[in-house]
């Protein structure tokens, strides 16, 4: 421990702590831009510069460790002048149409300028406008709003291991871009959206589909239904001002009803359905010598990663569609038939924690009849929050409202799909009971839970020891893929989620997501699970009824047509 002084306040902190962390721990605010918790320290923007008494130059608080007797001034005239000048220089090379920006009133640069009292810039705007990169269905990149902080480069390279984005050139010509100035769609981008999640401004955002949804909601000819992913119910509250990990399921349903949707359904229902189909597929592969390890297929970023970088492992992927796409397929077939609705007039909206889900819904093969996409529009958690605010809904005052049926009865197994390890645990609850032909004594598979990058477990199925593995982030997924490719591990089943923490940390979740917030959302996810009447997918009574009335049997001809798909080498 060392004794330091910040702004005339004496503090004792751990040796090696940075000035920024020491200040934060003691409720002293030092503004930052390039700094982001859980990412590498870059000290590029220098906005966090502070003065150390007795030292000649200013230092960056994010990178400077404390020492015994250090005295720091975070807001001296010298510091404030430097900080203001740096911010004004950033603004002088930045798109200044703030009121037309997606991040207006939720922009770190705008907040910093307001805090510093910058109401008029002393420097002339020298921005040379570049065209938008909006050539894909998931993410829009606007270089005119980029402040070159490097966060997106860091998360793409060091968390996802993809290197899609890089800094090019030097000095005032430096820019952040895919290699050779290409579009994201020309690169091996998985559209995971982690870059958009950490961007402090609106240089990278999800493709905004809110106007499209408003239009169909106002069209009397359209029957518009919506499904909501498991991870959204533990993050939407945060987007609207509640504490991280707040469970807002029934208020969320009430809000969607007020927005005008004709039916509000739970993607958890088709998460249960996924477990039945995927579980029986795993059982079939184990019994009949199919391709192992079988790998989960519910994460579209992971699917893109395999198709582009490991096409030789495509046969390892489960053929199951994701819960989002299973819902869309059932909506355009079973639901349309039972409700006597022409699929031409049925519009299916998804609320997802993920930007890659927009890309997934637009894939050509995600259409049961070859004419209509199974899912028409995908909104992120952030976009739903935007629509609720636009509608003027007082979210906290809404009355609790349950999901509609027939897709409203779900299980705890489906709820945990949102957390890394959740799909694995849900599948094991069903596969174990089917193969072992007896109820599980303990439903919680603790070995596959938590934020560790790669988790392994071993269990007994039908008298045989079976190994499974779980990974989150594509850099960890690459490690597992290499092991499978090289024949190093004899896994039977592998779950991969592209985003840190799983879907609860998806690229469309509230901005400023950190590992601490991810852990709160995961905690809430398991809280939802333990509070459910049913906690195993195969015990869902509506799933049983669906098979009896429509699908007939798992892996049957009808379920295969509706609920399964195929993937392609795009190497």
User: How many individual helices?
Assistant: 19
Helix- and strand-based class? alpha/beta
* Global morphology: globular
CATH topology of the largest domain: Rossmann fold
Please indicate the count of domains.
3
The percentage helix is 25-40%
**Would you identify the CATH architecture of the largest domain?**
3-Layer(aba) Sandwich
Oligomerization state? single chain
Low-confidence sequence ranges:
none
How many strands? Answer: 17
Task: Characterize the biggest β-sheet.
Answer: 5 strands, mixed
- The CATH class name of the largest domain reads Alpha Beta
Distance between the termini: 53 Å
**What's the gyration radius in Å?**
25 Å
Taken as a percent bin, the fraction of beta residues is 5-15%
Mean pLDDT: 96
Strand order of the largest sheet: 2-1-5-3-4
């Amino acid at each position: 421990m060392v004794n330091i002084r910040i702004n005339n306040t004496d503090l004792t902190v751990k040796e090696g702590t940075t000035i920024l962390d020491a200040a934060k721990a003691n409720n002293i605010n030092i503004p930052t831009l390039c700094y982001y918790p859980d990412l590498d320290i870059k000290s590029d923007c220098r906005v966090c510069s502070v003065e150390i008494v007795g030292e000649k130059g200013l230092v960056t608080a994010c990178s400077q460790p404390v020492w015994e007797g250090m005295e720091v001034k975070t807001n001296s005239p010298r510091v404030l002048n430097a900080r203001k000048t740096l911010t004004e220089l950033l603004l002088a090379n930045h798109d200044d149409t703030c009121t037309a920006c997606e991040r207006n009133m939720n922009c770190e640069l705008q907040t910093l300028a307001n805090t510093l009292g910058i109401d008029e810039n002393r420097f002339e705007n020298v921005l040379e406008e570049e065209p938008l990169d909006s050539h894909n269905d998931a993410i829009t990149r606007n270089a005119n709003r980029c402040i070159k902080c490097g966060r997106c480069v860091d998360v793409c390279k060091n968390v996802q291991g993809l290197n899609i984005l890089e800094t090019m050139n030097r000095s005032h010509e430096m820019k952040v871009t895919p290699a050779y100035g290409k579009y994201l769609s020309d690169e091996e981008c998985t559209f995971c959206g982690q870059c958009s999640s950490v961007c402090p401004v609106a240089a990278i955002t999800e493709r905004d589909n809110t106007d499209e949804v408003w239009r169909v909601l106002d069209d009397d000819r359209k029957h518009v239904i919506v499904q909501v992913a498991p991870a959204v119910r533990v993050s939407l509250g945060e987007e609207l001002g509640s504490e991280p990990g707040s469970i807002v399921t029934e208020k969320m349903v009430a809000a969607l009803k007020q927005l005008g949707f004709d039916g509000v359904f739970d993607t958890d229902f088709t998460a249960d359905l996924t477990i039945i189909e995927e579980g029986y597929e795993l059982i079939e592969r184990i019994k009949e010598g199919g391709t192992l390890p079988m790998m989960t297929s519910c994460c579209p970023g992971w699917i893109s990663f395999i198709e582009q970088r490991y096409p030789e492992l495509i046969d390892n992927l489960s053929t199951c569609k994701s819960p989002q796409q299973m819902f869309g397929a059932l909506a355009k077939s079973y639901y349309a038939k039972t409700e006597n609705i022409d699929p031409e007039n049925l519009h299916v909206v998804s609320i997802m924690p993920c930007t890659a889900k927009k890309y997934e819904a637009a894939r050509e093969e995600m259409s049961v009849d070859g004419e209509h996409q199974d899912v028409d529009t995908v909104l992120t958690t952030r976009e739903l929050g935007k629509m609720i605010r636009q509608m003027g809904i007082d979210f906290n005052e809404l009355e609790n409202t349950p999901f509609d049926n027939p897709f409203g009865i779900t299980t705890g197994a489906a709820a945990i799909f949102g957390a890394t390890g959740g799909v694995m645990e849900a599948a094991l609850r069903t596969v174990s009971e089917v193969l072992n032909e007896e109820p599980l004594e303990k439903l919680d598979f603790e070995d596959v839970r938590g934020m560790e990058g790669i988790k392994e477990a071993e269990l007994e199925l039908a008298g045989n020891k079976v190994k499974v593995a779980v990974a989150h982030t594509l850099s960890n997924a690459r490690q597992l893929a290499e092991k499978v490719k090289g024949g190093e591990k004899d896994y039977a089943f592998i779950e991969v989620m592209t985003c840190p923490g799983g879907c609860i940390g998806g690229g469309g979740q509230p901005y400023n997501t950190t590992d601490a917030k991810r852990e709160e959302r995961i905690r809430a996810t398991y809280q939802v699970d333990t509070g459910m009447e049913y906690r195993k997918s195969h015990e869902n009574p509506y799933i049983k009824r669906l098979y009896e009335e429509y699908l007939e049997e798992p892996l049957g001809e009808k379920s295969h047509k509706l609920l399964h798909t195929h993937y392609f080498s795009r190497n």
